[in-house]
Amino acid sequence: MEISKAGQDGVDVPKSDAPEPDAPEPNPSTAAELRRRPLRRVFTIGIPVVLIIAVFGFAIPRLASYGQVLDTLRTMTASSIAMVAVAALVNLLANWALIMSAVPGLSLPRAAASNLASTAVANTVPGGGAIALGIS
Predict the structure, then answer these.
(1) Pair (63, 86) in one structural domain
(2) Contact predicate 42/50, CB 8 Å
(3) Domain match, 71 and 85 both
(4) How far apart are CA 111 and CA 136, in angstroms?
(5) Is residue 57 domain-shared with residue 85, that is, in the same domain?
(6) What are 71-127's pLDDT values in tens digits?
(7) Which residues lie below 8 Å from residue 115, measured CB to CB, with a gap of 6+?
(8) How many CA atoms lie less than 13 Å away from 18 in the CB half-sphere?
(9) Please, what is the end-to-end C-alpha distance for the chain in angstroms?
(10) What's the pLDDT tens digit per position in 28-72?
(11) Using CB atoms within 10 A of its CB, is residue 92 exposed (0-12), middle (13-18) or buried (19+)?
(12) Residue 117: closest CA among 103, 98, 136, 130
């Protein structure tokens, strides 16, 4: 226990271990909070893993054969694959730049997160276009 010299009449007063009344409250969404809530951690990791397995293991194979897609990719030349990759990147960057210009002060990573999250919802949830509009 620390001793404070701030007591009345020059008497040493034990310093309290209690936080100052104006001290900010700790942020409950820290990593320590997640460690204290193992069930929440299981859900935040488990649900996305289950969804990924369901989509790539069951839904996509009903729509297209992985073998046919692989055969198509094998017929593409390296330059055509590079052109498709560059076109996809330019498309993403153009959308993110548009979002940044519409929301003053928005950084590129936050614009990307907003765009990718709303697109994911729009493409995966029934009626997701309306929900995605609210997200973005």
Answers:
(1) no
(2) no
(3) no
(4) 9
(5) no
(6) 998 999 999 999 999 999 999 999 999 999 999 999 999 999 989 988 887 777 777
(7) 92, 95, 96, 99, 136
(8) 5
(9) 52
(10) 556 666 566 778 778 888 888 888 899 889 888 888 899 998 999
(11) middle
(12) 136
